[in-house]
Amino acid sequence: xxxxxxxxxxxxxxxxxxLTLSALAVMGCTSEKDSTEAAxxxxxxxxxxxxxxxxxxxxxxxxILPLFAAKWKADTGQTIDFQQSYEASGTQxxxxxxxxxxxxxxxxxxxxxxKLVKAGLVQPNWKDHGEGGMVTxxxxxxxxxxxNPKGIHDFxxxxxxxxxxxxxxxxxSGGAQWDINAIYGAGLKQSEELKGVKDPVxxxxxxxxxxxxxxxxxxxxxxxxxxxxxxxxxxxxxxENELLARIAKGIKYEIIIPNNTILIENPAxxxxxxxxxxxxxxxxEALVNYLVTSEAQEVFAKHGFRPVDEKVYAENESRxxxxxxxxxxxxxxxxxxxxxxLYSKRxxxxxxxxxI
Length: 356
Description:
356 residues, alpha/beta, ten-stranded mixed sheet, 14 helices, 10 strands, globular
């Protein structure tokens, strides 16, 4: 009987010991988990903004974002870090629509922002920020090697025999769409001079004559510029700011502004769906508004963009020739008309590609 009692006491002791060890293990795990979470948790007040932009804006934005972070820190005491992505404008817009959670986006053209509006990611009133939604301007220009060895003076010269032309693919690149719009619009201008009215047949033939000399269609404006720097082609159709920025770094290119070319306007927007999910609306709206301040606009001007701020533009006006035949997207009927006429599945651009 005494042996049975001692056995029960031993059994109870073992159970108590096992329970004690289990409790200590759980406490240890909880403590380890808490310390791990504390180590990787963001500091109080810190914030990360995700910026998804088109490739040509990269150099300017990498200089502007630290300036904004310093201002935000001074105003709020909050530290901001940035995650940045730079892609061809169309590619970037599709990535954001597909789930890339950018808080703020800078794209090459209004049409790419409108894709995000239609996807329910950006509010229709996005133009309330910036300068009517726009943060930079430029024009479509031609860049040649030093001394302009092929004698390029206007879009017409791109169709000459033996001239190798570069511009990117409008299927992926917003910059390419600006390039195609400029060439097609120049053809419409020529038809008006000849016939007194716009003639799409003449404009299409003009675009075909230039495209026949295109060496390659790169993914983005930045990729096309890189190919040109590597030695591909005789002349590049691109943003004026791309050429100005490289000339400022000592690369000896010639810039030709065609007599008939298009005014480029580049938008920025808060991606409303993602900022509300991530709790970053206040800082995101502040960043978009900051992009049109004189401080940011001076950086854009440094990188060759035409500022939307009138004062900064006036200070740099001598750098920006205004050709007689400069036109904007309204001359082509606006972006809805352009997408339908030029870039739909049976549009003029795809007819040119198919040779029909």
